[in-house]
Amino acid sequence: MSELRAFPGEPAFGIALTIGAYALALRLNRRWKWLHPLFATTGALIVFLLLAHIPYDQYRQGGDVITLFLGPTTVALAVPLYKAVRTMRRHLRAVALGVLAGSVTGMAASALVVWLLGGTRELMLSMLPKSVTSAIAIDIARQLGGNPQLSGVFTVLTGLIGSMFGPAVLKLLRIDSDLAIGAAVGTAAHGIGTGRLARESEAQAGVSGLAMSLAGVAASVLSVPLYVWLQG
Amino acid sequence: MRGLAILFLYNLLGIAGNKLLHVPLPGNVLGMMLLTVSLLAGWVKLAWLEESAQFLLKHMMLFFAPTIVGVIVYFGDIGAQWLPIVANLFVSTAAVLAVTGWVTGKLAARHEEEGDRV
Question: What is the pTM of this model?
Fold first, then answer.
């Protein structure tokens, strides 16, 4: 019995389960366009782990192996980014200014919403950097005095929401150029948003990869005066 | 396989830049920047790695799945302050999308018009 209980701790278990759920989600997405593949994958995995009483620490033995591939995949964004730089070089300033405006807005809106709805100061500080890639967000939250773990959680949830609804929101606002869509989704939803665009448009994914890096830099720079202000 | 080797090599270079040279950017993002510069400079040819890169990018979302599943560990913390958390996730994400998209779109369009006049 104890052998059976330890079995999900085999790395192959988490790997097979995750890739299986993802393959199924892609199939479902072909039939129902509105069903976001990453939402379906993670929703199914969470329900399964809870129902089967499998602790996350066991699942992650395999999960961490899959996460490892984020490294070369993020590096691979250099390909659409390289193509985007060649075709859209003269619009780089427009993207940079858009990213900066969006990053400032995001932090301000984040602080305002948490304050208005009575969240704690720790929550506010943990949510400030949630639009940027988690490695950067966690560093910023730690620096500002937020909770780094929670900050990582908010980052992936923000990415998932931006990835699910970003393109639809932009369509509603009649924002329709590849340049603007890529910039907006990369700034709001980092790699998870970029990952969605990468399935649909190489041009948008290239701008999104650029925007996501610029947003990371912008958030890091913006957090310095914020830190000084919070101390004073 | 050559493509995958190059991608992991630049990933490693990025991690080295972050850990050993203390560049304040995550190793993955730094690796992406280094590879972009290498492609632009012609040190690395696109054909060497395009196939591997396209395959990984097509399935980029898969590699985020385990991290998102990890949110289950924090269900309790989220439940305690669910209203400001959920409202903020939606409101400020929509605000970032709208402002970034609008500013970038307007500036690029204006640039385009000016370009036409010249």
Answer: 0.92
